[in-house]
Amino acid sequence: MSDLLTAPEREIDRLETLACRVLERARSRGADQVEVALNSSLAREAAVRLGEIDVLEEARDRGIRVSVYRGQCSGSASTGDLSPDTVDECVDRALAIARYTQPDPAAGLAQAELMAVDRVDLDLWHGHDLGMNDLLERAREIEQAGRDADARISNSEGASVSTEAAVSVYANSHGFIGSNRGTQYSQSCVLIAADQAGMQRDYDWDSRRSLSELASPEATGLEAARRTLRRLGARRVPTGKVPVLFAPEVARGLIAHLVSAVSGGSLYRRASFLLDALGQRILPDWASLIERPRLPGGPASAWFDADGVATRESALIADGELLRYVLSSYSGRRLGLNTTANAGGVRNLQFVGGSHDPDALLAELGTGLLVTEVMGQGVNLVTGDYSRGAAGFWVEGGEIAWPVEEITIAGHLRDMLGGIVAAGTDIDTRRNIQTGSLLVDRMMVAGQA
Amino acid sequence: MLELARGQLLEPAGLDDADLEKVLARLCGPGVDLGEAYFQRRVRESWMLEDGSVRGGSWDVDQGVGLRAVAGTGTGFAYADSISLPALLQAAGSARAIGRSGQSGRVRAGQGVVAEARYGTEDPTSAGRPADRVELLRTIDAYVRSLDARVSQVTVNLSASHEAVLVVASDGALAGDIRPLVRLDIRVLMEENDRREQGFAGGGGRFDLSELMNPESWQEYATEAVRQAAVNLTAEDAPAGHMTVVLGPGWPGVLLHEAIGHGLEGDFNRKGISAFSNRIGEQVASPECTIVDDGTLARRRGSLTVDDEGTAASCTTLIENGRLVGYMQDKLNARLMGAKPTGNGRRESFAHLPMPRMTNTYMLPGKHDPAEIIASVDDGIYAVNFNGGQVDITSGKFVFAASEAYRIRNGKLGAAIKGATLIGNGPDVLTRVGMVGNDLSLDSGVGVCGKEGQSVPVGVGQPTLRIDGLTVGGTA
Q1: Contact criterion met (CB < 8 Å) for A54 and B80
Q2: How many whole angstroms separate alpha carbon B266 and alpha carbon B173?
Q3: CA distances (Å), A189 to each of A158, A161, A234, in order?
Q4: CATH number for position A141
Q5: DSSP state of A267
């Protein structure tokens, strides 16, 4: 592959040189403070459908974003074209914008003394020179495993495999300059199953920093088939209030809503159902949310945040109680608080306290709904009102009875989070927010009259 | 248009027709059915007001070339983020990997595509002064706050983008387009006692910023955002269950986009994975329903002079008097299905592959007075604003989330109810349309459609509709 994969240092050097050029130009043209973020990546993806090549794609992406401050007035500019002329134009445009924006007392860089100094290797780079043919072969194996799983697998939307190598640099006029590099290997498979009642579609995927940790092709193909087949014959349920078990892939959404509601932007806009909730019990007292931004090999690991501030392990919620908000230096200043090193969001947030295996959770659920998919935008973070489309399974006496679709689940997020009565040990480690299944004591399910 | 696009995209890089032919020849190895180069440059300027002052502004530019080689059902794709001959030839070499190895053929750049312009060529990012935009945002903020003392937060976003595209392909297509796009969003937070609620309104289209800066347009959005927030402050819990739903005109047309539109895109039907696959000619809606996808409407957000493959935009009838009559196609899927491209080949940018996408999708008006439709309902809900939706095109299940709705009892509008998700089944929801209003309207120009990770601007519209049975996801 190209030198980005074999010699990421060279690309980082190039980005750092550009970063210095930006800092110099902005300072010499009147910026009091300036910050710049650059990224560069190379990705390859092979997709097959019904055994034939669907798409072969090579993606070379670069980008730069510059923010300048004239006193308390800010301006920003970005481009995907890293030629020196365009980068210079970005600086000038950002400076021009800062001439028109109004003073914002919260604007500016994070405090200089908070800048990260301890560069640590977080084990995010595992280079393998996989060519298109390797990817294609793997995609074929995945899809074939899925299609061979059962005669009711009638069609396929295909399987795809991709690799990405990415580097990024952040620098600001405090003199901070930091870089990250990471690889990502991903695969997915989407299958269609049919019976006399109609077609169903579902999928499976995996994504890891290292190729050796990626699920085997067979595992992804077979899991896609299993998930698709189990939906056949889905129907609605009667309308009523029942306990609802969220599978890990949808449980993470509940935690993501919580994180949004305690994030700086939602709080200073007063657009959160968790205003002034610091110190309050949000989750049951056996549950905690721990952020581990320096988790080796983690999906979102970084040693500094998007402001250059050093990251550190820290509880967001301990024993059910909200200990802090999720703040950047900007949102912190808007609220009169210190940054929590969360510019750019939370990094590797883990739900801790779950003790049930999947069978124990179904037994605990008794009779109610297991949700494996949610649909649509029906989440109001201002009020906490929650109403979404859902699909999953009806559970009776702790056993999965039949698949369910075309229903809604509704409640209030504060009640739902506080009403979590059990959590699973089946943690989904593929994403930034990592949780097992979550059992909510009661929600309104709407289906038939 | 073509000459303007040429001037903005090819001339600065010193590229001429002979260079384009070289690139196409490199793409078109043996077995390649279509080679295509898509040049694009997009400049976007945006301003944001929050908490009474204009705190942010941004200027963003992206340009590059997407190179595509199609062989049978397969596509090879690569792109370059600089417009220069060496970068183009290198990307073309990667994209042609889809074909068999061997000598390239000779390809001639084609003739200009003939298409009627659907909007002007003005550059909204360079029109007027930045100071005027900042002043406008402050004026809007003051106006919104003057409307109702309960307003506690106002956020206003103003953006303008200018895009030049040029497509050249081995099938002879050669087309350019200059696409302006502007948008104004007003979001209001209102507080009373212990309750806080939001209201939102906005609009835009393919025209100059001066139209949005006209007090008549922004005052309408401001008033609407405040009205919605005030209504929501009084909202009661929404009901749960299967019931009659009346949808208001305009933006609730997101129903058609989700329930019908996506399922009628050519790619899903070519692959046989849509709930509408192989159903052309069947009755899939009540005879009162005729639905079109129309990219030709003047200056609409979803409109196009030519699509991103250089095909002239058109008005495609999807459902005629309830019968399914057409799909929306791009070149690849049209060729594989033996159909004609319909001007629906769209892509988010040069770094994304084109696919069949909607433009402006709406239902033609029926014969009923909207008041008569509401009066006909004994027990149900009336939903007039939505947050957006989602569909599973294979099972046909779709959702859309109401953000403003009312109870209907005994033919009369009752209390406002909280937002709730509505869920239904695309292939049968329109068979349950009981009445179609005579009040067709289109949305104000804020729609964004996402598909396979790509976002494109779209429009929707419909007259008032009565649907006799849809699941409403309330809590009461």
Answers
A1: no
A2: 20
A3: 6, 9, 21
A4: 3.30.2290.10
A5: H
**Cβ(A207)–Cβ(A408) below 8 Å:** no
Test mutation, B60, B158, B269, chain A, max A CBs within 10 A: B60
Q: Which residues pair with A195 in a beta bridge?
A: A198
A101 in the same domain as A27: yes
User: Are residues A156 and A279 both part of a single domain?
Assistant: no
- Find the closest chain B residue to A86 by CA distance: B61
Hey, is the C-beta of A274 within 8 angstroms of any chain B C-beta? no
Helices A132-147 and A217-229 sit at what angle, rounded to 10 degrees?
40
Tell me, yes or no, whether A322 and A435 share the same domain: yes
What values do phi and psi take at B471, rounded to 5? -85, 125
Q: Are B218 and B140 spatial neighbours (Cβ–Cβ below 8 Å)? A: yes
Rounded distance, CA B205 to CA A199, Å? 38
> Which of B82, B231, B273 to mutate: most A Cβ within 10 Å?
B273
Average pLDDT rounded to a whole number, residues B99-127: 78
pLDDT at A185: 97
> Which domain does A316 fall in, by range?
234-449
Task: Identify the domain boundary among A229, A254, A285.
Answer: A229
Nearest residue in chain B measured CA to CA from A444: B475
pLDDT tens-digit profile, chain A (449 residues): 457 888 899 999 999 999 999 999 999 999 999 999 999 999 999 999 999 999 999 999 999 999 999 999 999 999 999 999 999 999 999 999 999 999 999 999 999 999 999 889 999 999 988 899 999 999 999 999 999 999 999 999 999 999 999 999 999 999 999 999 999 999 999 999 999 999 999 999 999 999 999 999 999 999 999 999 999 999 999 999 999 999 999 999 999 999 999 999 999 999 999 999 999 999 999 999 999 999 999 999 999 999 999 999 999 999 999 999 999 999 999 999 999 999 999 999 999 999 999 999 999 999 999 999 999 999 999 999 999 999 999 999 999 999 999 999 999 999 999 999 999 999 999 999 999 999 999 999 999 87
Last residue of a domain, one of A184, A209, A229: A229
Token duo for residue A108: 């500016």
Verify that A182 and A42 share a domain, yes or no. Answer: yes
How many domains does chain A fold into?
A: 2
- Pairs of residues, one from chain A and one from chain B, whose beta carbons lie less than 8 Å apart: 260
> A244 and A219 in one domain?
no
Cα within 13 Å of Cα(B199), Cβ side = 27
For chain A, percent of residues with pLDDT exceeding 70: 99
Contact A97, B131 (CB under 8 A): no
Which residues of chain A are within 8 Å of residue B395 when distances are taken between CB atoms?
A: 198-201, 231, 234, 405
**Domain ranges across chain B:** 2-233, 237-473
- CATH for B2-233 (3.90.1640.10, 3.30.2290.10, 3.40.50.2300, 3.40.190.10): 3.30.2290.10
Please indicate, yes or no, whether residues A214 and A266 belong to a single structural domain of this protein.
no
**Burial call B356-382: b when 16+ CB within 10 Å, e when fewer:** bbbbbbbbbbbebebeebbebbeebbb
For A101, the closest of B51, B56, B395 (CB atoms) is: B56
Distance (Å, whole) CA A117 – CA A114: 9
Reported as a single tens digit per residue, the pLDDT across B238-249 is: 999 999 999 999
CB-CB contact of A343 with A306 (8 Å): yes
Helix (H/G/I), strand (E/B), else coil: A113: helix
Mean pLDDT of chain A: 96
Same domain, A208 and A258: no
What are the C-alpha distances in Å from A306 to residues A264, A433, B375?
14, 18, 56
Is residue A305 a contact partner of residue A311, using CB atoms and an 8 Å limit? yes
Rounded distance, CA B12 to CA A349, Å? Answer: 48
